[in-house]
Amino acid sequence: MRKFFLISGLLSVAGVSFATNGDNLIGVSPASRGMGGIGVGMPVGPTDTIFRNPAWMSYYKGFNLSFGGILFMPHVKGKSNVTPMGPMNPPAEATSDAKVFVVPEVGIVHQINDKLTFGIGAFGVSGMGVDYRNKDPRLANMHTTLQFMRVIPALAYKVNDAISLSGALHLAYGSLDMGANMCQPFTTNCWNAGGGQSQTYGIGAQVGIAYNMGDFVFAGLTYQSPVEMKYKRVFDSNGDGRFEDLKLTQPQEFAFGVGVKPMQNFKIGMDIRWINWKNAKGYKEFQWKDQWVIGIGGEYKPTEKLALRAGYNYGKSPIRGGAKNLMNANNIPNFVAPFSDFNVAYFNLIGFPAVAEQHITLGLGYEFTKTFSVDIAYKHAFEKTVTATDNMGFGFVVQGKNAQDALSLGLNWKF
């Protein structure tokens, strides 16, 4: 099992800088991503059901195999006038060198009998990071990565023609690097605080319910538990040469969705997801706010073989700007040195700028044969800028910008 996770971790190595809803992808399969990331309230494809709402696995007959990936292209910029001696203007601004990544996915859904369906999938689902090495020192030589992958075995039970129930385990692999030059205020005492890439594992669970009224009206509910992670020897917060651990829990989620299929060749759905960042260890201390994410998407089939898709996804940034306290002290789990509110904002906006809010999506699917089809999708996240200043009038400023483009491809077989 440990070797399996290591392989899965290698598969998700491209998880850097693909934050969308916080540090989560809007969806994992091209079918879902082409429809705004929906999949809780109605079925959009076998692979996506494993992750979004496993109860919908009962909707699919036979044996289904999907393999694909996401070509992710973030456009991240940071701005800062922060130095140990005080603000230095004009602020330095640079574009992160973390620009193109591949995020793979694979899933199997197998109908055991008329009542039971089993599925298993491996997905890169969360991540973010930047690379400001060899840029202006006011950007702290920041180079960060968070990679998070879930291997999900799931089982769905068909209660009757309308209702299905499901349960799943989330076997998680995570990798974190927090490279940065840290300095004590009003001194020249600086140090490289990064402890290098730290890998760890965790476990969570998911339950779901799906309702299908005559293949016309659909509804679904799902809950994902938190996944507690502890990254060891990842950061030296006080310059004593000892690297400290960081507890960083992927948050619990609750989601509800509805859908309607008024015609055989047209369907539309909407999902609403609550992501509990503010109570997740690590994210809470870095002052992330909860998100309410809404996804809306539709599919139209002009021919029996061709499916056209479009969608929209919105979630307010969990990272907020404004005037930040320069002198208070926030304890970060396992860190020796406390962080002020402004220090927290600096790390968020320069190191982990998960601020994208609005996404538009397009997609299509084509059935080449009765057993083989291809899905593709495009997503654009509009540029979002978040700026923080100090609350004492010293003139400190830090800013993060994030825009994204992504292409997805999925190859699907059914037997």
TrEMBL record:
<dbReference type="GO" id="GO:0009279">
    <property type="term" value="C:cell outer membrane"/>
</dbReference>
<dbReference type="Pfam" id="PF03349">
    <property type="entry name" value="Toluene_X"/>
</dbReference>
<keyword id="KW-0812">Transmembrane</keyword>
<keyword id="KW-0472">Membrane</keyword>
<dbReference type="InterPro" id="IPR005017">
    <property type="entry name" value="OMPP1/FadL/TodX"/>
</dbReference>
<protein>
    <submittedName>
        <fullName>Long-chain fatty acid transport protein</fullName>
    </submittedName>
</protein>
<feature type="signal peptide">
    <location>
        <begin position="1"/>
        <end position="19"/>
    </location>
</feature>
<comment type="similarity">
    <text>Belongs to the OmpP1/FadL family.</text>
</comment>
<keyword id="KW-1134">Transmembrane beta strand</keyword>
<dbReference type="GO" id="GO:0015483">
    <property type="term" value="F:long-chain fatty acid transporting porin activity"/>
</dbReference>
<keyword id="KW-0732">Signal</keyword>
<keyword id="KW-0998">Cell outer membrane</keyword>
